[in-house]
Write a structure and sequence with these properties.
The complex is a heterodimer of chains A (64) and B (1004).
Chain A: H1 9-31
Chain B: E1 16-17, H1 20-24, H2 27-34, H3 62-80, E2 104-113, E3 116-125, E4 128-134, H4 147-151, H5 153-156, E5 166-167, E6 170-171, H6 174-191, E7 195-199, H7 205-217, E8 221-225, H8 232-242, E9 246-250, E10 257-261, H9 271-281, E11 292-297, H10 302-305, E12 309-312, H11 315-331, H12 355-368, E13 372-376, H13 382-395, E14 400-404, H14 411-422, E15 428-432, H15 436-439, H16 443-450, E16 455-460, E17 472-475, E18 484-488, E19 491-495, H17 508-518, H18 527-538, H19 545-551, E20 553-555, H20 570-579, E21 585-591, H21 604-608, E22 622-625, H22 626-632, E23 638-644, E24 647-656, E25 663-668, E26 698-710, E27 730-732, H23 733-738, E28 763-768, H24 777-785, H25 793-797, E29 806-812, E30 819-825, H26 834-838, E31 844-846, E32 852-854, H27 864-868, E33 875-876, E34 905-906, H28 912-925, H29 937-941, E35 947-951, H30 958-963, E36 968-969, E37 981-984, E38 986-988
Parallel strand pairs in B: 7-8, 7-15, 10-11, 10-13, 11-12, 15-16, 16-17, 21-25, 22-24, 27-38, 28-37
Antiparallel strand pairs in B: 1-29, 2-3, 3-4, 5-6, 5-17, 9-14, 18-19, 19-20, 21-26, 22-25, 23-24, 23-26, 28-35, 29-30, 31-32, 33-34, 36-37
Helix pairs in contact in B: 6-17, 7-17, 8-13, 11-13, 11-20, 13-20, 14-16
Classes of the chains: A mainly alpha (64), B alpha/beta (1004).
Chain lengths: 64, 1004
């Protein structure tokens, strides 16, 4: 049975073309984005992403 | 859901019920019982099932959508071909000596909460502490600890921790901070002006020695040890009864009859008491000796839910009732201590207690004699404590150990300190691990007084209400990064760090050593050296400090003289108790199960663990008795105003079956104004604490009124219901002796399928409901072991909590004083698991060892399995609860358990990682797995040893033997799903015939 609720052919064609086009433009923008301008002042000291873990000094382990 | 209390009880009441709605049998409750997920659990949105027509589809059609997706996927794949952002896994270039990747290290250590010491064993992985249990070497705790201590590993990784000193609101170096700190203290010393130090309880001998050294170096130092939730009345009563502060430890292994006057010793805080309780309740047959627990209390406590005989009595009447008991026992020939005068008491049963119950209680206590003990709740009025001390002295109770303790400051002492601060007498004040700006009842006056002190310093971990008033903030190590020691009955305990300090923080004692040095004293370099020097002097011959650290303790009893009861204190207390009368409603303010006095409020594991009684999470509503709720026309969740002594709080109310009429109960520790997790959760109840230390936490004259509107409660008690099926069993001792299976008859199970074969092992579990107190230690242990996510109050309200094990709390009998049974419920690992059959992708399947296991990366989130699980134990990740977490939060994860993302179903795995760990070790040693060698996290965490895990294929294993016990049953056995978990029916040992069951007298 024909789907009567379907949109006209032109609308569908437009959506099929416009969708990938817009997504593609967004993707290219991500890949070739212009470099950010240098900050006006000295950048803050980089915070390490990982917290350094050190073993406890003088502690005696039970087992392991 | 509406909960209107009935004018008359329903004609037929179910034997067990979990919520008021179930008890009243509202249509909403009946509907809810049939719904798999709570309304709102599943997101509302378009009905994707309705593909055939109405209303007509609008927007993008399926064909267009697929076209778009294909094109977008092709483009995305092209763009994703980029090496940016890739990490590299690098092994240790210099491996720390102690750390072997993939192998856990264990350290013995210890911590304390108030006066209670918890010796612990810390499990670390790759240098990170990830799991805590009790120290198995300690003669008291025997490998057990409290839920709050287990959860405290999360506080180590609290992102809100202060990571460097702060001076005048700015990050400073330790050198600058110390220069300022030492300068202020030297100035105070030179001027001869007093310096105030407020800390928590001092239970460490070395900390005590350090404070004494500090007092010598700084003679103007005044020290207050303040524990806002410890119960000032207990301190007042101890001073009156013994002339000194005492620490009271129940010895329930020696108790045949226990009388609790509002004491909640089974709430998980005291692993020693719970272990002894469990040992007396895990009966193999009815001929074994069982104890009897009498509870007289206002609010329903966890101990009250475990009572054999419970009588609701308001707190103001407890003292009079207990003194009347002493008079009655004296009349029956039990000797009174010298100097005791009870002439002011009238003889006979008080009006609060039915005569038959009274005579039975008197008879029980008298018969048990030295094996009887009377315990009083910390929040109860001082007279009740004094009466308990008198009764124990009369009975010569061996079931309680009294030790001299360091005195604690009461609210009165704080009031005096505030007045002195306001007068400008102090040159400096130092707050160390305390938060009086939050816990002092008159916070505004306190804050005003503090500003009058010229120099204010703070030592702590997370900035709080008190630190906001201080110029100098000195960040402190977590106890897992610190050294220390404790004196406990049976052993001297050592605390050692299990990890190096994560941040630029120092141990509080090291900061004070720095002060000593600045004052010119000669002190060792660091608290470790200070501690070692003290210990080396006191260690028994042949024991090295290193050995003591390895074990975490040195066994041996310190000889101290037991405090002597002063009979002369009784007359005044008895007179006061008889005269005590509460106007209006009585309010009991108790430490929150999750938050205690607020110190744990920033811990999401604890906030989300349901309160064992109200089953509330993330909030502290006021609990109202059924009778008062009826009188006020209150329904569950109604907003109310609670007014007392000029302080008014607006908060939601819950209706609590079993609570004495005229009594309100409210948890402390909520309503914090700082902390990423704690802020804004619940209301701060400290403004309602009284300034009379004799009854600071049990107060009369409260007024409650409806405020209009209702709050949606984040409460779990109505979640995962099982439609009133016969899930929980409770026996009286007579029933246990004569007919343990009762009317339950197992139907013959017929199946067309062949029985499964388990070639090597068949893992199974037994849970003894008689030993389970409902303390929720298993829940916290499981959360820590299995990386169970927390979801927050809004999600809990929608029924989306993630706990793999829950405690179902069932009431039995009448609303006004029901009996209660707790039932831990977790995946039953059914042999014929209904969840496995319906999984379209075989993500949940059966192992050859009987485990119902999950392949997370195969799960597509259809939730069919949860729909088909008769036990409601499967949990779905409706949202992304874990992926956005970063360090330090992720450091708490157990690397042996997968962290589950959104869209994945999860559930109890019987701690398969622990099973495999033992299997690998046994294989390496070339031996068989020993019975009891594998412990699931819940089993290891259970302080009353109610959970036993093992191999059902081994007929000699403990679990196999328990499965054959006469109390054994399986939940919903008639479904034929063959669960691997067996429950042992709860036991009650009532002195009187129970209201709802036929029972008789069984000697305690």
């Amino acid at each position: 049975m024909a789907d009567e609720t379907r949109k006209p052919l032109l609308d569908r064609a437009a959506a099929l073309v416009a969708g990938p086009l817009l997504l593609g433009r967004e993707a290219l923008g991500l890949v070739f984005r212009p470099d950010r301008e240098a900050p006006p002042e000295t950048p803050p000291e980089a915070v390490p992403l990982r917290i350094p873990i050190t073993p406890p000094e003088h502690a005696i382990k039970r087992r392991g | 859901m509406k909960t209107r209390l009935p004018e008359h009880g329903p004609l037929e009441t179910p034997r067990f019920w979990r919520t008021l709605e179930e008890r009243i049998e509202t249509p909403e409750a009946q509907r809810a019982a049939h719904d798999e997920f709570l309304p709102g659990t599943i997101p509302a949105g378009p009905d994707y099932d309705d593909v055939h027509g109405l209303p007509p589809q609008s927007g993008v059609s399926r064909r267009d959508f697929l076209g778009l997706v294909s094109a977008a996927a092709a483009l995305a794949a092209t763009v994703a071909c980029d090496r940016k952002g890739q990490g590299t896994v690098v092994p240790y270039t210099k491996r720390p000596v102690e750390v072997i990747p993939g192998v856990a290290n264990y350290y013995a250590s210890a911590t304390h909460e108030g006066r209670r010491v918890y010796p612990v064993l810390v499990k670390t992985r790759e240098g990170r502490p990830i799991h805590l249990t009790g120290n198995d070497e300690h003669p008291g705790v025997k490998g057990k600890t409290s839920p709050r201590v287990m959860a405290d590993v999360l506080r180590l990784y609290d992102p809100d921790r202060l990571r460097a000193p702060k001076a005048q609101g700015h990050v400073a170096s330790w050198a600058d901070a110390e220069a300022q700190f030492h300068g202020a203290l030297r100035g105070a010393k030179a001027a001869g002006k007093p310096v105030l130090l407020i800390s928590g309880a001092v239970v460490s001998p070395s900390r005590k020695a350090l404070l004494a050294d500090l007092k010598t170096a700084l003679p103007t130092l005044e020290h207050l040890a303040y524990e806002p939730a410890a119960g000032d009345a207990a301190e007042v009563a101890a001073l009156a009864s013994f002339g000194q502060a005492v620490d009271l430890q129940p010895r329930l292994d020696k108790a045949k009859v226990i009388l609790s006057l509002g004491a909640d010793f089974l709430n998980g805080e005291d692993p020693e008491a719970q272990a002894a309780w469990g040992a007396k309740r895990r009966l193999k047959n009815a001929q074994e000796a069982i104890n009897r627990l009498w509870v007289l209390e206002g609010p329903l406590t966890l101990t009250g839910t475990n009572a054999d005989q419970r009588v609701p009595v308001s707190p103001s009447r407890l003292g009079a009732v207990a003194f009347a008991l002493a008079k009655e026992l004296a009349a029956k020939g039990v000797a009174l201590p010298t100097g005791t005068d009870l002439s002011g008491m009238s003889a006979g049963a008080p009006a609060d207690i039915p005569a038959a119950v009274w005579s039975s209680l008197v008879k029980d206590l008298r018969a048990a004699g030295r094996n009887a003990v009377v315990l009083c709740g910390a929040q109860m009025p001082a007279e009740a404590h004094q009466a308990a001390h008198l009764l124990n002295a009369m009975l010569g109770s061996e079931a309680v150990a009294l030790r001299a303790a360091e005195p604690l400051a009461t609210v009165k002492d704080l009031e005096a300190a505030a007045q002195k601060m306001a007068s400008g007498a102090y040159a400096a004040v130092l707050f160390w691990d305390v938060n009086p700006a939050y816990t002092y009842p008159k916070a505004a006056a306190w804050k005003e007084a503090v500003t009058k002190v010229p120099f204010r310093a703070w030592i702590g971990q997370v900035e709080d209400e008190t630190s906001a008033q201080c110029q100098l903030l000195l960040p402190e190590n977590h106890w897992l990064e610190s050294w220390g020691d404790y004196a406990t009955p049976g052993a001297a305990v050592l605390q050692q760090p299990a990890i190096g300090a994560l941040y630029d923080t120092r141990q509080g004692e090291d900061i004070l050593l720095g002060v000593l040095k600045a004052m010119g004293a000669t002190v060792p370099d660091g608290y470790h050296a200070y501690l070692q020097a003290r210990w080396k002097k006191e260690l028994p011959f042949g024991t090295s400090f290193e050995q003591a650290l390895h074990d975490g303790l040195v066994k041996g009893e310190t000889k101290t003289s037991a405090p002597v009861f002063k009979g002369a204190s009784v007359a005044a207390a008895a007179k006061k108790a008889v005269a005590a009368k509460a106007d209006g409603l009585e309010l009991v303010l108790f430490p929150g199960f999750a938050t205690h006095d607020g110190r744990h409020a920033n811990n999401s594991w604890l906030q989300e663990t349901p309160d064992p009684i109200t089953k509330m999470t993330w909030d502290n509503p006021v609990a109202v008795s059924v009778q008062d709720a009826k009188a006020l026309g209150l329904e569950e969740g109604d907003w109310v105003t609670l007014a007392l002594d000029g302080a008014t709080l607006k908060l939601p109310a819950v209706i609590q079956p079993g609570q004495a009429p005229g009594v309100l109960a409210l948890a402390l520790g909520y309503g914090r104004t700082t902390g990423g997790v704690a802020k804004g959760m619940g209301v701060n109840a400290f403004p309602l604490v009284g300034l009379d230390p004799a009854s600071a936490h049990a107060r009369g004259g409260a007024k409650l009124a409806k405020a209009g509107g209702r709050k949606e409660l984040s409460r779990t008690q109505s979640h995962h219901r099982m439609e009133g099926r016969d899930l929980v069993r409770s026996l009286t001792m007579d029933e246990f002796a004569h007919n343990p299976q009762g009317h339950h008859h197992m139907p013959e199970l017929v199946t067309l399928y062949e029985d499964q074969k388990f070639p090597d092992h068949k893992w199974g579990m037994v849970i003894d409901l008689a030993a389970c107190t409902g303390c929720s230690a298993c829940m916290v242990a499981c959360q820590s072991e299995n990386n169970v996510a927390t979801v927050g109050p809004e999600q809990v309200a929608r029924g989306r909590e993630m706990h793999w094990i829950r405690i179902d709390r069932y009431y039995e009998g009448e609303l006004e004083n029901p009996k209660v049974v707790h039932q831990p419920m977790l995946c039953q690992h059914c042999d014929n698991a209904p969840c496995e059959n319906v999984c379209p992708v075989n993500a949940t399947n059966h192992s050859p060892e009987g485990l119902n296991q999950m392949a997370y990366n195969r799960c597509v989130g259809t939730r069919y399995c949860a729909n088909n699980c008769p036990y409601k134990v499967r949990r779905f990740n409706f949202l992304e609860y874990t992926a956005y977490k970063t360090e330090p939060e992720t450091l708490a994860y157990n690397p042996e358990v997968t962290v589950r993302p959104r869209g994945v179903m999860e559930k109890c795995s019987f701690c398969v990682q622990r099973i495999n760990d033992v299997k690998i070790r046994a294989k390496g040693d070339g031996r068989a797995i020993l019975d009891g060698e594998i412990t699931t996290a819940c089993m290891a965490g259970c302080p009353s040893d109610a959970i036993v895990f093992g191999d059902l294929k081994d007929p000699k294993s403990k679990v196999s033997q328990l499965v054959a016990a006469s109390r054994a049953y399986r939940v919903l056995e008639e479904l034929g799903v063959k669960p691997a978990i067996t429950y042992l029916a709860d036991l009650k040992n009532p002195a009187m015939p129970m209201a709802s069951t036929e029972g008789g007298h069984h000697e305690a």
